[in-house]
Amino acid sequence: MAALLHSSTNNLQVPGESRSLSTSPSGSPSPSRNECSIAPLTPSPSPRAEARPRVACPFSVVVAIDFGTTSSGYAFSFTEDPEAIHMMRRWEGGDPGMANQKSPTCLLLTPDLRFHSFGFAARDSYHDLDPEEAPHWLYFDKFKMKIHSASDLTMETELEAVSGRKVRAIEVFAHALRFFREHALKEVKDQSSSVLEGDQVRWVITVPAVWRQPAKQFMREAAYLAGLVTPDSPDQLLIALEPEAASIYCRKLRLHQMIDLSQRPMANGMDVDGSRPFDSSFRQAREQLRRARHSRTFLVESGTGELWSEMKTGDRYIVADCGGGTVDLTVHQIEQPQGTLKELYKASGGPYGAVGVDMAFEAMLCQIFGSDFIESFKAKRPAAWVDLTIAFEARKRTASPGRASSLNISLPFSFIDFYKRYRGQSVETALRKSNTNIVKWSSQGMLRLTADAMNELFQPTINNIIKHIEDLMQKPEVQGVRFLFLVGGFAESPMLQRAAHNALGRTCRIIIPQDVGLTILKGAVLFGLDPTVVRVRRCPLTYGVGVLNRFVEGRHPPEKLLVKDGREWCTDILDRFVSVDQSVALGEVVRRSYTPARVGQRKIIINIYCSDTDDVVYITDPGVRKCGAITLDLTEPGAVGGSVNGNGSVADRREIRTTMQFGDTEIKVTAVDVATGRSVRASIDFLSN
């Protein structure tokens, strides 16, 4: 790497000049010629292993929040009794047939943007509002998906309520997390024999593994705003990846706590002898959970479960988290005898969750009644629209491949009345004119969806899931998988189970935990108790910074040439920290040293670039984008570096050594002043890009 340079172009820094005078090409880092000037030193080519110090756990209790697209919940465990996981209390409201303690991810704010309620209470309160009053209230449902789909997520990103009003997304998420914080802490205190201080609680929040760094940071910032922890205690909050959490819990499963689809051959959704429907085991499991609800405490194995005893070192398996909004896939390998996990392929997935079935239902309604009517109905009768989606959700849960009879979905009276006013004809007439043979009208005011209709609604989403799993299994790193674990709320669907069995049952054993909707939540608690259980992860992207290297004629393009003080430099070279799909173990670090470009500089800002591929050389290459920045605060005593000699140049510059970790669920950075040995305040930001 080059020695310290002070130039006015590209990565080179000149003191006293404005940042706006940059002549950097599009896509290259701004030269930062004021307080943010930097000059990189001593790059190291790859992560270096460094043992993490093992310290005693300073927390008394771990509280995990599974923040899902369609349903959410919390659970906790005391560190002195880690084998007992306590589930959240079941509060008012609820739907028939719901098998777990979780609540709908619904939030209701008053017209003046104050918190009113969450979960079943929010849904019921919104339903009971006067139709003239409802449009002034803000009801949010399935809002987590907006974070997944936002390509330019920032602290100012807004969410749109059902009524059309918008609020900052960070405030909506903070309201929900604050609700869980208050309920969880009350329950923890009720079960604790001692008084717990705020810093004795470790919090864990789950996110999809396919979420990028901005979305993970967004959840952390929402937790800070909600008061779970403070920014001064970042280690008190862990971000858990949902399929990882499920994998951690599946390690503890006993044989009676799972269903092995591969040992029950199916034909048309039935056992081959036709004796019982495909989903009978889940009905039995739900009944067992209902009977055991009064305890709400689950005991887990102190070691590993019986299924794990069948596995050998090197055995591979896939966890498919089929949730409400996304399907998240991770591939793990077992490391014995320590029982740790190693990720074999970068997390993958997409927006193929159960919400896709809801969207297909809405598209079907648009086809029958017209998109203009549906949009108008949603805007003018938002509470009635929510009622209709709830009615469909209840019937969706009962859909199974072996069912021959139709499913009835109640249409709200306001839907029937509004349509007649809007179109001047009845709902029955609209159905007849649509020539839709798979949807009929019932004189009792219901839509009758035939089995073919339900198959049409489910099939596109299920096909996406199966195809993604099949494509993943073709990867060289994934071949030879012995087990496929289906987890998440959508995994409880007999429609998905049948499709997975038919497509993948001959390739591997398909395992479904009986408490499938709570698998991630329990695993998140276990992750909070031992964050080191996943020892190796794969990088989802290539990360690096733009630097200068010596210009080599014939290798570097002429447009990258910079001549300074008679020396030739190549600009915009990507100094790669890690590469996409690279294995990085816990404790492995990437070190770089930077020095202030002038005396008295108070801040160093280093722009971070990323790419989906590894075949990049320059930060201006196609597909390379600026994704964040590292900030080093030099205002601490002794950290503002450099003395000036007689000719005005810097004689003795401070070296700030940064250490970055890419092996955890979040990218972390620390820094130290080499001259003094003092820590330098360092932060990494992916939301202000």
TrEMBL record:
Keywords, ordered alphabetically: Stress response
Record field: compositional bias (Low complexity): 18-32
UniProt cross-references to InterPro entries, sorted A to Z: ATPase_NBD
Keyword Iron-sulfur: no
Region (Disordered): 1-51
Biased composition (Polar residues): 1-13
Name of the featured protein: Heat shock 70 kDa protein 12B
